[in-house]
Design a protein that fits this description.
The structure holds 2 protein chains of 2 kinds. By secondary structure, chain A is α/β, with parallel strands linked by helices. Chain A is 58% helix and 10% strand. In chain A, strands 7-6-5-8-9-11-10-12 form an 8-stranded mixed beta sheet, with helices on both faces. Chain B contains 6 helices and 9 strands; from the N terminus they run H-H-E-E-H-E-H-E-H-E-E-H-E-E-E. In chain B, helix 5 links the parallel strand 4 and strand 5. The longest helix of chain B has 36 residues. The chains are: A alpha/beta, B alpha/beta. The interface between A and B is large, with 64 and 61 residues.
Chain lengths: 806, 236
């Protein structure tokens, strides 16, 4: 047993590390939402392992050490092999709408990636099944390992590129395999196999197979096809792979929303890709404003036509484009906030000379921080808060962001920004303009609600919007626009052939003049959203344009089911571009995971039906299913909630995830002792635990927003400690029901243990997808409440399944 | 034995050629049907000139061998280097919207497979086409030559500054959307000329931007939904 615990920890650490690493690597070679889909389905390997163990339980029990060591070794090998093979499958996500073969390739990818998870889960499942007297302990090391693995991979990715991190991770289960081999009867063969694999690793064979084959349709691949272009700098971190591309022969000129009337051409630019896509640029600036005069002719320049030498806050400074815009227009002071330090370093250091050293300008202060976190703790007020185009047109166009939470464009965020504007100050937000309009209208709806919540009776008087053929810029002023503002907007647009979409007092004839749409969609939409029938308009509209909130922070989610048949029917005539892929892929993932789970787990369970004592089968099967759903619902919802507090999605995932896993592990280790004490006092342990989880979670829903507001400006260390202090009791309680149920099953029907493991694994996978679907529709608070309901039903199931122990 | 084998081969080739001709005609019928459905595009029917051109150009000769079976399906196909041959419907619509005349000189930015250039060359006097990907530029050049298009001139290079030596142009077709319309291209467009730009992803063209330079040099654009899709239902 002394070796089993650390071996379990190592396998578990490698499994979660591999999951997070795959997400990273697949986001680079494919797109984020397909990465999510592939991994979700590959994780069904967890569920399938339960089925496998159940079917061969007797044989495996007799050779536990050999089976564990073999599984761990195969896990190590297939971590590398499966990924290398999956890269050779010609899957093209973009062609899926046209070519049914792509579904076959997609299935091949996730079947390949299912294999390593199957072996990893087999190790843990075997340990539960064959060493059932120590279930609490094993579960503790399993969760502790998972917590450790999450931190390990995120830390490693700051130092190593993903391919090297994979090799490092693969060593963990190899060590586990070696540890378990010592007492295995078939150790000679195992040691030979381990040595061969080690020799191959030492010779660098796996490394040669792991170069990332980025889809040829991603921005980076396409940029590198251009004659003489090349990557001149690259850096990798858990936040993304940043690649800088120089194209001397065919220089890039990126100027979204540039006026047709302009005579100014953008100077040379460097392209910066994040995860091989999402292009932004660093613009050459020689200090002469004339060289960047094109910046006066883009829609994002509008606020500068209304403000004189403003003090500006740029949220999402990226390659420095919006800072340059502010400098060009004579801003008196600029605070630039950028989340990714690698990106800031490019402009501030590596290419400082190229970019005109703008981040070292006396007027500019750079903050490496998440936008909302910065604003929440800032004491400053600004004449202009500027949010530029933070995403690429392609990403925005394909609906790939629809699953991304964005706390920048929510009602609460806009209220926070408004609170940081000086008298007469404004927020300016530029977005890509999609047709028919989606994001631009959703932004107006969100702004209108934020203004109303701030006590402005007539939001329409605080808003102005203009558009070019592909961008829109919205101004939100903390005071009503004045007549001189309006005349400045008119004049700015007239001289640049931009259309006005809304300003106070705008006449219908002033819309749709230069860039004509079939209908004045944007003007009509804004007018309707600012009128009395806004709700009805939003309901009638074929895209989801209801305001985004912190509870439902899916600004990029525009999908409505009722629009789908029409869009599909228009596929042959250009309608494919109207499909919001992200959400559909998520729904497809849910459907596939459910079907695959039924086939892999529940069907074998039904086929192998036997006499389950004490109603173990269906009742306890449901118990473990509900636990899987509930645990993940709570975990995912709290990761989301803490993103705002920890000011960084990555920190939130790392700290909250590892916190949940480690404290749940501690809870599981203590579960047996707690159960004995509670039962001695006549309580049903799972009922008490479920009650505690419910009480804590409900208190947190109310308490956390207050705590966040009070302490968001505190030091990182204090915030991390506070986060763990909140997670600890909740996760501790959440770690108990699973081992308690498993121990109970072990007493009465040991052959049910692998099924329980498999069912719980299946539920964890499906629930991750389902939690996102539910959060998009109903918000995170509802997801938490639903989880509590599931815990309550689970408690009811177990308390009626078996009589309490004497 | 050699003679019958050659005959069989010839028969097989001619049978395949017939298959492609039939498939092409069937595609044309399909496109005409879609044009009627997509009234939003202002193109209730494609003109005979455009349909004749589409029916003449052998799309199967412009795609990789692996894609040949799908050459006459109304969908974009991958041609390597992260590029696609456009969906025939979009090619027909773009060609229709620039109102090509027999004596027109047209500039194309982004030669790709050469398909759009070939369709244009069937109608207009001269097509100039620029491609920035070396391999595609050389493939398209030899392909268009072998197909007998002597009124298409291609070159490898930067399309941003157009092709000053041959300017001004009656029409300009930009086959890849950029973040903005290059000012030099607007300058090289004749007064009264039209420029068309597809907007969207490689496999999913969403809208078409039609830019018109009026006789007095003013720029007016119209954005065509590639489809008839009204975002509102019921009462407006």
């Amino acid at each position: 047993m002394r070796r089993l615990y650390p071996a379990t920890l190592l396998v578990s650490a490698a499994a979660i590390g591999y999951e997070l690493l795959l997400m990273r690597m697949l986001s680079i070679v494919q797109w984020h939402h397909f990465a999510y889909m592939i991994i979700s389905l590959a994780l069904l390997g967890y569920g399938a392992s339960g089925t496998l163990i159940a079917l061969f339980r007797r044989r495996l029990e007799r050779r536990f050490e050999t089976a564990f060591a073999t599984s761990a070794l195969l896990f190590s090998i297939t971590m590398i092999l499966s990924f290398a093979l999956s890269q050779r499958v010609p899957f093209n996500a973009l062609e899926i709408v046209w070519n049914p073969w792509q579904f076959f390739y997609l299935s091949a990818v996730y079947l390949l990636l299912l294999v390593p998870f199957l072996f990893a889960a087999s190790c843990i499942g075997l340990a539960f099944t064959c060493r059932r007297f120590a279930i609490g302990r094993i579960y503790f090391f399993d969760l502790l390992g998972a917590g450790f693995g999450a931190l390990l991979i995120i830390g490693t990715l700051f130092v190593l590129v993903p391919q090297d991190a994979l090799i490092l991770l693969a060593i963990l289960p190899l060590i586990a395999s070696l540890m378990m081999t010592i007492r295995a009867p078939a150790r000679t063969k195992l040691i030979a196999a381990q040595l061969v694999f080690l020799a191959l690793m030492a010779a660098g064979v796996p490394q040669t197979q792991l170069s990332l084959r980025i889809s040829e349709y991603k921005g980076l691949s396409q940029a590198l096809e251009v004659i003489d272009s090349r990557v001149v700098a690259e850096s990798s971190s858990p936040l993304g792979l940043i690649s800088v591309v120089e194209s001397p022969t065919v220089p890039v000129r990126h100027a979204p929303g540039l006026s047709f009337s302009t005579r100014h051409i953008p100077p040379q630019q460097l392209q910066v890709f994040t995860d091989a896509d999402g292009m932004s640029v660093i613009t050459r600036f020689d200090g002469d404003p004339v060289s960047v005069a094109y910046l006066g002719d883009i829609t994002a320049a509008l606020p500068y036509a209304l403000l004189d030498a403003p003090r500006v806050l740029v949220l999402g400074a990226g390659g420095g484009q919006d800072v340059l815009l502010a400098l060009y227009h004579g801003a008196s002071g600029i605070d630039a906030v950028e989340l990714n330090s690698q990106m800031s370093e490019l402009v501030a250091e590596t290419y400082a000379g190229f970019a005109g050293d703008i981040y070292n300008d006396a007027r500019v202060r750079l903050f490496t921080q998440e936008a909302r976190g910065y604003v929440a703790q800032s004491q400053d007020s600004y004449d202009l808060i500027h949010i530029g185009l933070l995403d690429s047109f392609a990403a925005s166009g394909a609906g790939v962001q629809s699953l991304n939470e964005s706390y920048i464009y929510t009602v609460e965020a806009l209220r926070e920004y408004l609170a940081h504007t000086a008298p007469g100050g404004m927020i300016a937000i530029t977005r890509w303009l999609k047709l028919p309009p989606r994001g631009s209208l959703k932004l107006v709806a969100t702004a209108s609600e934020a203004l109303a919540a701030e006590g402005h009776d007539r939001p329409a008087e605080h808003l102005a919007m203009i558009r070019s053929w592909n961008t829109s810029t919205l101004l939100i002023r903390n005071e009503p626009f004045t007549e001189s503002d309006v005349s400045a907007i008119r004049s700015f647009c007239r001289s640049r052939s931009f259309d006005t979409a809304w300003f106070p007092g705008m006449r219908p004839a002033e819309a749709n003049r230069y860039n004509k749409l079939a209908e004045p969609y944007l003007y009509d939409g804004v007018t309707a959203l600012l009128g009395k029938d806004a709700r009805a308009f939003m309901q009638r509209y074929k895209f989801h344009i209801e305001p985004a909130t912190d509870n439902r922070p899916y600004f990029f989610h525009f999908f409505k089911w009722r629009t789908l048949p029409e869009v599909i029917s228009l596929r042959q005539v250009g309608g494919a571009g109207l499909i919001e892929w992200g959400y559909l892929v998520l729904a497809a993932t849910f459907a596939q995971a459910t079907i695959a789970g039924l086939l892999l787990i529940l069907l074998p369970l039904l086929c192998a039906r036997r006499d389950w004592p004490g109603g173990t089968g269906p009742r306890m099967g449901s118990y473990f299913l509900l636990l899987g759903f509930a645990f993940l619902f709570v975990e995912m919802a709290f990761i989301q909630k803490f993103i705002l507090f920890l000011s960084h999605p990555l920190y939130s995932v790392a700290i909250v995830l590892s916190g949940f896993l480690v404290f749940a592990g501690l809870g599981s280790a203590w579960s047996e002792a707690a159960a004995v004490k509670l039962e001695a006092r006549g309580y049903q342990p799972v009922a008490v635990v479920a009650g505690s989880i419910a009480a804590l979670a409900l208190v947190y829903i109310v308490l956390l927003p207050v705590v966040f507001e009070r302490f968001v400006g505190s030091s990182d260390l204090f915030k991390i400690i506070l986060t763990n202090a909140f997670i600890a009791p909740l996760a501790f309680a959440m770690g108990m029901p699973f081992p308690l149920g498993l121990t109970r099953v072990a007493d009465q029907a040991p052959h049910f243990i692998p099924w329980a493991w498999g069912i719980n694994g299946f539920a964890s996978v499906v629930s991750a997808v389902l939690a996102t679907l539910l959060a998009i529709r109903f918000g995170f608070d509802t997801v938490i409440v639903l989880a509590l309901l599931l815990y309550a039903i689970a408690a009811l199931l177990i308390s009626t399944a078996t009589p309490a122990r004497a | 034995m050699r003679i019958p084998a050659c005959l069989l081969l010839l028969l097989a080739l001619s049978a395949q050629a017939d298959d492609f001709a039939a498939a092409r005609q069937s595609l044309i019928d399909e496109l005409q049907l879609y044009a009627e459905l997509a009234r939003d595009s202002d193109t209730a029917r494609f003109s005979d000139a455009v349909m004749t051109a589409m029916n003449k150009v052998e799309r199967h000769r412009m795609v990789p061998a692996s894609q040949r079976p799908y050459a006459y399906e109304n969908r974009p196909l991958p041609i390597g280097h992260g590029q696609t041959i456009s969906q025939p419907y979009i090619v027909a619509l773009m060609t229709e919207l620039i109102e090509p005349d027999a004596d027109d000189v047209v500039l194309e930015i982004g030669t790709g497979s050469g398909y759009q250039a070939a369709v244009l060359a069937e109608i207009v006097a001269q097509v100039y086409s620029i491609e920035i990907i070396d391999a595609l530029a050389s493939q398209a050049k030899s392909r268009l030559e072998s197909m007998g298009y002597d009124n298409i001139t291609t070159r490898l290079g930067d399309g941003y500054f157009g092709w000053q030596e041959h300017a001004p142009f009656d029409a300009i077709v930009v086959t890849a959307a950029a973040s903005h319309v290059p000012p030099p291209l607007i300058e090289q467009l004749k007064p009264g000329g039209l420029m068309i730009i597809p907007v969207g992803g490689r496999f999913t063209t969403q809208t078409l931007l039609l830019l018109e330079k009026t006789d007095d040099g003013e720029i007016i654009t119209r954005q065509h939904g590639a489809v008839r899709f009204v975002p509102l239902t019921g009462k407006r």
